């Protein structure tokens, strides 16, 4: 292993593969528990080993970084230690720095045409795609049927007003139960905030794609959230509460009545062992006057770096790794959704829960694709929660709007 | 080696390079370079771990990095303008001053009392002195995490106790939200910071107390001074060198302290419980350059504190 690593770095610096052997570096986050049986290291090592058997001249080295240490990747890029293939954030920022191959250089046309269109469209900068979605998920409202029954609520909520009254009833059960879990802490505030903005006809951008964060609708949304927080319908101080460790863990424990979630919440529920399959339900996220007509769907992307100069080999590997078999294996492992049409079809046929989520995908809303979205996203994660916790929403959202347009 | 020990023994040589033990050989250059093998490694180390990072920090503060770490180009002074335009910065700086003053003040006051106590004979003193080391010996991160758990809004042991006493009605409400509210979170952090700072300060002051000769107390007694007067006019002035060192080292430590606030509240909500050190780290998430600009400002604060320290210690030794 060590020997191949050495020879590869030698051949890399010369820019091509004179000896015929090429080593590709793949960098990916861990969707499971690092070091655990569900670590993504295992998943990728499996693909890489199969690939090496079929293509003995290409070796792929896998480096897995825990999501909690994802900062490390920025440090690596800052020091110009580029991987050949990166699974992670959207391609726009990297493409703007001219570091990436256009997707057509590293993926064959048949694989590209199999990508789910709504996500594939997200990869573009000026009409050229620089990445490909690899895994996706879509958001819905999870509710705890046991708590709903105990609070004598007949049906799951359809509107914001329903959420508010149901949450108050659930909270009144006592014992530390939380009506609606509102994770606006730094982990993923941009998603939770977006779910609520969408319910009031708002969002991060207007119909022409320009940032419109402090629109009247969004401010109204956060005024509503503030009133929910004040009334105690949510946990206190949502701006410091995170999705996975706090709200999803609380939902899995049975102390949270309602929470926005994706399929990835299901394994935590199973693991905690407090709720059975029949104890919770999943419905479309409510909006101000009725359920959202479009779900929020998010995706993580594959990008390929030009620095190593291995376009042809990357293409071979990506075409191999996007096979239905591996897509579905990933989704079964982590309860996420596939990024290809063919894998979606076969998963829909076999898995009713995934089918429910997948049905919402073709029509889904996604994050903006402006080139500074990643930078803005970090700022949103840090600050937007304060708009639901006492700071004037027009100030918080106004500051974000200024940041978004000043750093474009 | 012999040379440095020699200079050390003499203790007063202002120019160690000029303390010749070896005979003068070929000209000035060799002689000038002679100490290099001895001081070279230390100088190299300082250049590598102190000077180089400082230079890199200044460079980074003038560069524009994307949030993914890719160098986009030069930023001029933009990172600084953006930093000074941050709406949160004013509050953060004020909070940092309050943080340093409150933590160091409380630590020194409490430590003065504890040191006085530990300077008296009492049964179990040895055990008490050992026990005081515990908060110092434990990792600060670990201590902070334990406090965070004790204040978990859902089942923190502090709230469980308060609930059994009838002071808290229900979990996961505003009653059990000390770490979510910026004001209470900040004062919880101050408490933890005092808790971990007391051992060092107490031991520094205890050493100072033990160095006070007993005859000055006898003299005070003969002159009829009451205990309060003795403490004020004899103990405190003689304790001044120890007090000053303890206070200034604490000021630097507390100013730079990252883990306590970070673990307890993450500086949140938003940046409402952040000090400049925490704020720097928060900025890093979206802009490495702006975070570096914040570091430069912090570096300026530190330089000022160090100058004060040097001045105070000079004043200290002059008065000795």
TrEMBL record, chain A:
Question: What ranges does the record give for the region Disordered, renumbered to this chain?
Answer: 1-20
Composition bias of kind Low complexity appears in 7-20
What residue stretch is flagged as signal peptide?
none
- Output the superkingdom of the source species: Bacteria
Q: Return the InterPro entries for the record.
A: Bact_solute-bd_prot1, SBP
What name does this protein carry?
Answer: Extracellular solute-binding protein
Q: Which organism is it from?
A: Streptacidiphilus cavernicola
From TrEMBL, chain B:
Q: What is this protein called?
A: Carbohydrate ABC transporter permease
Q: Report the superkingdom from the record.
A: Bacteria
TM segment ranges = 38-58, 96-118, 130-151, 184-209, 230-249, 291-310
UniProt biased composition (Low complexity): 10-20
Q: Which Gene3D superfamilies match?
A: MetI-like
Instruction: Give the family, as the similarity comment puts it.
Output: Belongs to the binding-protein-dependent transport system permease family.
UniProt region (Disordered), positions on chain = 1-25
Query: Which keywords describe this protein according to UniProt?
Result: Cell membrane, Membrane, Transmembrane, Transmembrane helix, Transport
Q: Where is the ABC transmembrane type-1 domain?
A: 93-309
Q: Where in the cell is it found?
A: Cell membrane
Stated membrane topology is: Multi-pass membrane protein
User: Which InterPro entries does the UniProt entry name for this protein?
Assistant: ABC_transporter_permease, MetI-like, MetI-like_sf
